[in-house]
Amino acid sequence: MKILIANIGSTSFKYSLFDMDTEQVLARGRVERIGETLSPCMVEINGVKYLHEVSVPNHAVAVRQCFEQLTSSEHGVLSSDNEIAAIGFKAVHAAGISGVQFVDMKLLDAMEEFNNLLPAHNPPYIKSMRNIAEQLPSIPLIAAFETDFHKTIPQRNRYYGVPFEWAEKYDVIRYGFHGASHRYISIRVSQILNRQDLKVISMHLGGSSSLCAINSGRSVAASMGTSPQTGLFHGNRCGDFDPFVIPYLMQKLSMSQEDVLNILATKSGLLGLSGVGADLRDVMKESKSGNERARLAVEVLIGYIRLYLGGYLVELGGADVLVFTGGIGENNVEIREMITENLDSLGIILDLEKNKQIISKESSIHAENSKTQIWVIPTNEEIIVARQCAEKLKEVK
Fold it and tell me: b vs e for 321-336, b when ≥16 Cβ sit within 10 Å of the residue's Cβ?
């Protein structure tokens, strides 16, 4: 069974083709600058990259380009489009829907209902899913929602202190996101340590970041709430923020609610606080050069992470394992050091030399006398979605 996993951006289409009999990645590729005059189209097969540029007006055409690359007589890995059993999507959120679902009009309408909560996520996915469904009606589309892993979160960690009816009627509760990543970490760390009863704190740190407390493979708390704007602040999104400040800013800045929310969703986080950019590497470089705002942004981010980390240590009654994952978690030596600094009294002790040697590969970085193990584990959201899609297809056979 071959499944194509799609990663949708507003002007990009990235994909991986899996052979689910072996879980081997047969090809990876991307189409960028969709809608511009020429779009770079790249596919990597057996370590060799093939690149060309063509006009790609929308995501449906991007998928067609993907199929042409994969079935190319020169380097393709498929004999025809019909070999693809399904196209899977790491979907984020929809009103009243979670889990793994076939994409249909009802599902797309439910996603559209949450567009205001996910302005950077849902609209491009909905548009591309509609285009692809129209152009390729014979291939099933499957959405695996990020909220699914967090369905085990207990009520005490799910409800806000707001009128109960808001939760019951309008779904205003804590959902948690990055579910595919946290699920992968939960599975992988259990495999590594050969234990199913682990207390794990998964730290997915990247352009978008979240923490998750996991007990025996089940999510029990997650830093993101009703929308992915919440929790830790992100590259350009605000994270946790006092809602009563919004009308105050509307008055002071003579802005509409939409304008203020747009700033919170696109010009805040590392970008807004540092004034440098949304990429932590750039912010840290400026911080080391004496930029005080950049230094402050890094310190505030570390403070956010440590606050959630402390709360999840209490929630779990201690942790067996801390895991760093995501682009920052896997690659940034200094951030890992800052997060774990002076936690010896909690039984969390980083081995500074091991930490410096690890760059985006699976390895332990805790000291021998650390009660809690510390690991760097590169995440693999795509294989989780591919597995979920394969299981969904088996259900209907």
Answer: bbbbbbbbbbbbeebb
Look at residues 334, 310, 347, 300 and name the one whose alpha carbon lies nearest to residue 201: 310
Greatest distance between any 2 Cα atoms in the chain: 62
The CATH class that applies to domain 2-145 reads: alpha beta
- Distance of alpha carbon 39 from alpha carbon 36, whole angstroms: 6
Q: Does domain 194-381 have CATH number 3.40.50.10260?
A: no
Could you state, in order of their start, the residue ranges of all structural domains in the chain?
A: 2-145, 194-381
User: CB burial class (10 A; 0-12, 13-18, 19+) of residue 379?
Assistant: buried
Rounded CA separation 171/14 (Å): 31
Per-residue model confidence as pLDDT tens digits over 3-52? 999 988 767 889 999 999 999 999 999 999 888 889 999 999 989 999 99
pLDDT digits (tens, 9 = 90+) for 40-57: 999 999 899 999 999 999
Say what the pLDDT of residue 3 is.
97
Q: Identify the three-state secondary structure at position 121.
A: coil
Count the Cβ atoms, other than its own, within 10 Å of residue 267.
13
